Amino acid sequence: MMRENQSCVSEFLLLGLPIQPAQQGIFFALFLSMYLTTVLGNLLIILLIRLDSHLHTPMYFFLSHLAFTDISFSSVTAPKMLINMHTQDQSISHAGCISQVYFFLFWGDLDSLLLTSMAYDRYVAICHPLHYTTIMSQNLCILLVIVSWVQSCASALLHTLLLAHLSFCGDNTVQHFFCDLSTLLKLSSSDTTVNELLILTVGVVVITLPFICILVSYGSIGATILKVPSTRGIYKALSTCGSHLSVVSLYYGTIIGLYFFPSPNSSDKDVIVAVLYTLVTPMLNPFIYSLRNRDMKGALGNILSRGICSPR
User: Residue 14 forms beta bridges with which residues?
Assistant: First the structure.
């Protein structure tokens, strides 16, 4: 007897981006340069933090993990999208599609949780500066990262296991440039009630609650800043939070716009917004943290001067 959850299709067809055939070459070059910038820029952040002892602090510890997560998050979707654009082959195997869903959810959830840890770090640094070194100990930082990894792995695994048990016996055309979970559920010939309920439940844990924690953290930071009579003190506090706030705004702004205010009759708009948070946001993070952060610029200058002045 055949299993009820056995899929009828062996592969899916990714429609990709809403781009005219004549413009494929231009956009291929654009997205390839964006992806390479993402990888190289975030690798540079990891390298700087690794080599400069002045950056061995909780804030940059979380930032190094965020940079690695951004590289991985973009690598889930960008290479396959670029290959499809170059070869004009839109197919992806059933197993490959399920795997892409897992890793996309895993790295996306981890991104959200790491941003929350960074917000908590800034909250302690500004609101409780005298107790910062005591509260943000190395053990706590490692624990926060471990919890983030485990929680992200568990939530992505739950989604993927339920998705793998669905049947796909009808249309196998995915109106996206990657295997998006919500898009796949629309194609399934099985009952997806449990899957949709899990999306709501897990979404609260890994997206909504972290976002609320970030808002509370920065609300407390704002209240503390307003109590500082010194303009210099206000500027210093804002400078330490500006980079992180910019990243949070980019990341959550696109996700909220896509999933909380969806356009039922505009799949093209959803695809374009997805490009923003899968490719554009990870690419901008290195620029935001390097251009707005004095410590990162100082570390880069020190390493470059060391390389220039070192004996040959």
Answer: 174
